[in-house]
Amino acid sequence: MSRIEEGYLNMALYAIGDLHLHYQSILKAPGQLHERVWKNHEEKFRKNCEKLISADDTLVLVGDHSWGKNLTECELDLQYIRDLPGRKILTRGNHDMFWDAKKTAHLNELFQPDLTFLQDSYETYQDYALVGTKGFTFEGPFYIDRRGRITGWNEEDEAHAKKLVERELQRLRKSFELAKADGCRKFIMFLHYPPTSILEERSGFTDLAEEYGAEQVIYAHCHGERRFNDSIHGAYRGRTYHLVSGDYRRWKPLKILE
Ligand SMILES: [Fe+2]
Ligand SMILES: [Fe+2]
Question: Distance from the CA of 192 to the center of ligand 2, in angstroms?
Answer without folding.
Answer: 6
